[in-house]
């Protein structure tokens, strides 16, 4: 029974809570016990909040007894990526420089979730400052793939992906700047959803690249992703890039008659692992069986999106990470002068990958190079946004693999930053264009999961999730 | 566009990141590969194309320019995070150094 309830996800567990067949305390204890037994090997959680979680679970149970349940998330245990602030709790972003940093206030998403009665199990491991595609860049050690300890879970939200896939929580929060929710979701065989840029407040999310960063759910089903999304989105006075957009109203459908699915010809060329290709091709066949029209579409500049990203993102990183100087908070290396204090605090507190991106960004923004790099990239970004807009006038969703490979071996790409960056090839376009995108599991080969990636129109998450869920149900039934 | 070891040393200094010689050498190699990859953008014709705005979000609103207070709990946490303090004051290295004798 305990093993089974951990696999249920939000909707399933919520049903049992509602019927009185299960208490939040029982469910929370089941997860905590599993975390205690498996986390030493998986390293998915950086902090586990046993006492707080049990107290929150008891509160949820009492509310339910009184007939005052707060709804579907009340009493549901979730995990939070360690770059989102929970007041009074440590928040490291996977970095030594923030090893002892205590969050001063709540992120907006946490404030919103507090109103739902969700139980927080703890904080999940991640690539330092969310920079990486394998979670090997965490200052607190690599996260292990739940099905093969010699492989990576993807990244940067690798801890959250493993926590969900290994049944250590009902659902988790991730953040996605170039694919950091979707690629680990694909590697671990779960659902990972990045909403439209501007949907979810970034207030209290430790910034990596502010014009791309977006928080999103990592879950066992598309329905669970929709549940978390529906409570987290909305305009926020603390994040002026949040949009006053149309409300999200799920519009589930079983068939896909009348839906046009576009396969970008530029993306389906060389460089895709053959097992990944065949899994996603058979998923496309399922979409077609459901009644969708499958058409090839031209998506120019697809191959330039990654280059745009690897200029604009480091520029924003170099600015955002300048705040970590060891003066007001975080690690300070005592030194005789202010300059040496900066050099040592940052040199020793910030790890190799963030340092690499800070250098790249500082260079690209420096006098004499700004036009050639940053300005040029921002112009090509316009072309990419237009290309997506025009493709999405002809089709409803764009489908590719989520990542070009399956979960790779620990250490395989760690010394070759460019090959690691190529992991983002299919996901990064949605960040550069600001569009919603989701990875859904579409099979496995040799025990390693594969994800299908779907991109939809801006602020029309309902249509995107409907296609993803129709596929998920057809695959589940088939 | 190449990047010399001296360029990297000077950029690291601007970014206030202390790097050892070994790290400088490694950075030179890594950054060269990445810059070669992103140079593909130079071939894209962009005359007359505007730079992308921040996002597709219908954003661009401004809040009133007024002070926000914080709670006592937040204040305590801010003080607790100081790497060095003197009472409620933040201790930091001096900005101006005394000339060496």
From TrEMBL, chain B:
<dbReference type="GO" id="GO:0006412">
    <property type="term" value="P:translation"/>
</dbReference>
<comment type="function">
    <text>Allows the formation of correctly charged Asn-tRNA(Asn) or Gln-tRNA(Gln) through the transamidation of misacylated Asp-tRNA(Asn) or Glu-tRNA(Gln) in organisms which lack either or both of asparaginyl-tRNA or glutaminyl-tRNA synthetases. The reaction takes place in the presence of glutamine and ATP through an activated phospho-Asp-tRNA(Asn) or phospho-Glu-tRNA(Gln).</text>
</comment>
<dbReference type="InterPro" id="IPR036113">
    <property type="entry name" value="Asp/Glu-ADT_sf_sub_c"/>
</dbReference>
<comment type="similarity">
    <text>Belongs to the GatC family.</text>
</comment>
<dbReference type="GO" id="GO:0050567">
    <property type="term" value="F:glutaminyl-tRNA synthase (glutamine-hydrolyzing) activity"/>
</dbReference>
<keyword id="KW-0648">Protein biosynthesis</keyword>
<keyword id="KW-0547">Nucleotide-binding</keyword>
<keyword id="KW-0436">Ligase</keyword>
<dbReference type="InterPro" id="IPR003837">
    <property type="entry name" value="GatC"/>
</dbReference>
<dbReference type="GO" id="GO:0005524">
    <property type="term" value="F:ATP binding"/>
</dbReference>
<dbReference type="GO" id="GO:0070681">
    <property type="term" value="P:glutaminyl-tRNAGln biosynthesis via transamidation"/>
</dbReference>
<dbReference type="Pfam" id="PF02686">
    <property type="entry name" value="GatC"/>
</dbReference>
<comment type="subunit">
    <text>Heterotrimer of A, B and C subunits.</text>
</comment>
<dbReference type="GO" id="GO:0006450">
    <property type="term" value="P:regulation of translational fidelity"/>
</dbReference>
<protein>
    <recommendedName>
        <fullName>Aspartyl/glutamyl-tRNA(Asn/Gln) amidotransferase subunit C</fullName>
        <ecNumber>6.3.5.-</ecNumber>
    </recommendedName>
</protein>
<keyword id="KW-0067">ATP-binding</keyword>
